[in-house]
Write a structure and sequence with these properties.
mainly alpha, 279 residues
């Protein structure tokens, strides 16, 4: 177990080394977050104008409700996948020895916009199917849906890098992603995705710091308490941006290793130990 945690932190450090060379990679999660908020506002405003939550309740479970939900998922996924593709594309340039700019990543994603939209439609369809099954099934059905969602996540783990680097459609990208994942690391992922554990640890540490900041600020004045809350929220926002960027670099490096055996800035033994085939 100690070795697993050590690998997790080592992977974070290696990803951070890439981010230190290309701090502009942090721009992509920021743009993605802003765009996601705009998408949600765009959908929320008409809902409010039409009567708010009661209006949504009336169409829930109807064909209209599913159509609205599908459109929302489609746009939100398309935005997220676009900026994720830009991040992965830029990270791959760095891992190949180049020096990417923000515009380089955006150009890569723009060239693959058609495939990204197709992948967003596929992901939205899968999400809607799982949601419909979950709403119409009992406890055991929800467990099956949960397992299905996990299987989809594993199968599509490398779909974005595949779309970025190969001239294939969304279905072919999912197939290639699943094949790469199974061939390279097998089905048993060690350490519950070390990057997720590292992000959780960092967030938990910041929670403790935030409590102290707010408590100290409250002792000074009401303005101090507000300032403490503001700093705490800013810290959580930064951690979210950092975690997203680190995940993109992490994914790009593992894809590169899967297809070429070259981990780039990552130590080869570190990558091989982070995931091992099921025996």
């Amino acid at each position: 177990m100690a070795g697993t945690f050590a690998n997790s932190w080592a992977l974070v450090k290696a990803s951070a080394d890439v981010l230190r060379l290309d701090k502009e990679l942090l721009v992509y999660p920021v743009l993605s977050g802003i765009s996601a908020v705009l998408v949600m506002v765009t959908f929320f405003v008409p809902v409010v104008a039409l009567g708010g939550v009661p209006a949504l309740a009336e169409v829930e479970g109807t064909y209209l409700g599913y159509a609205i939900a599908f459109l929302f998922y489609l746009v939100l996924y398309a935005v997220g996948f676009f900026f994720n593709a830009a991040l992965v594309g830029a990270a791959l340039i760095r891992l190949e020895g180049g020096d990417p700019t923000v515009s380089d990543g955006l150009a890569i994603a723009s060239k693959r916009m058609g495939a990204i939209l197709g992948y967003a439609a596929l992901a939205a369809t899968v999400g809607m199917v799982l949601r419909a099954i979950s709403e119409r099934s009992g406890f055991l059905g929800r467990i099956v849906v949960g397992l299905g969602g996990m299987a989809w996540s594993l199968a599509t783990y490398l779909a974005i890098p595949v779309l970025v680097t190969e001239d294939v459609g969304p279905i072919e990208a999912v197939k290639e992603s699943a094949a790469l994942f199974k061939r390279t690391w097998g089905e048993q992922v060690v350490g519950n995705f070390g990057m997720g554990w590292a992000a959780f640890s960092a967030a938990l540490s910041w929670v403790l710091v935030s409590v102290l900041l707010v408590a100290l600020g409250a002792q000074l004045s009401p303005v101090g308490a507000v300032a403490g809350v503001a700093v705490a929220l800013a810290g959580f926002l930064f951690l979210a941006i950092l975690a997203s960027a680190l995940k993109g670099v992490y994914t790009a490096a593992h894809y590169r290793y899967a297809v070429s055996g070259e981990p780039g800035y990552f130590d080869r033994s570190m990558v091989e130990d982070a995931f091992r085939p099921k025996r």
